[in-house]
Amino acid sequence: MIETVTEGTTLVLQARVPTLTEDDFVEVGHLRQAERRLATTRLTLSFKGVGVSLIDDKPQELLYLSIHDIDLVYTSTSESRKIEFTIGRLQADNQTPSIPYPLCVYPTQDVCNQLT
Predict the structure, then answer these.
(1) Phi, psi (degrees; rounded to nearest 5) at 12
(2) Quick one: CA dihedral 103, 105, 111, 115, positive or negative?
(3) Per-residue pLDDT tens digits for 16-40
(4) Number of folded domains in the chain?
(5) Which residues pair with 94 in a beta bridge?
(6) What is the pLDDT of residues 41-64, one digit of tens each?
(7) DSSP assignment, residue 109?
(8) 3-state secondary structure 24-70
(9) How many other CB atoms sit within 10 Å of the CB of residue 16?
(10) Whose CA is closest to 85, among 51, 113, 43?
(11) So what's the pLDDT on residue 64?
(12) How far is CA 100 from the centre of its chain?
């Protein structure tokens, strides 16, 4: 089950994975085995991009972080749980005035060519 909950100004996405109960078991000879109908759960979240600004008390923007092509995949089976997190592009820009190098972190041309 997936639901959203508001916590102050933050929207939280909650995913609950069903757990096995006594009704999910079947009798097989002298052994009890879980039915496979609850065996796999997969949740995929994809975002085109997210930008975050770090602002001081003046207020003045100090840093801008942009992240593009974000994928989060959660997979749960009866044997394991796995989380995969990938970012296609990340860039951090120094926004302070008169800075000689405004790009702190950025992809190189070779990386950009590989993504397209």
Answers:
(1) -110, 130
(2) negative
(3) 666 666 665 555 554 444 444 446 7
(4) 1
(5) 63
(6) 888 989 899 899 998 888 888 999
(7) H
(8) HEEEECCEEEECHHHCEEEEEEEEEEEEEEEECCCCCEEEEEEEEEE
(9) 9
(10) 43
(11) 92
(12) 34
DSSP assignment letter at 14: E
Q: Is the peptide bond before 18 cis (omega within 30 degrees of 0)?
A: no
For 74-87, the DSSP string reads EEEESS-EEEEEEE
- How many angstroms separate the CA atoms of 15 and 97, rounded? 43
Q: For residue 97, what are the domain limits? A: 2-115
By C-alpha distance, which of 2, 92, 7, 101 is closest to 44?
Answer: 2
Please identify which residue in the block is written with the tokens 């041309």: 109
Instruction: Say if pTM beats, i.e. exceeds, 0.90.
Output: no
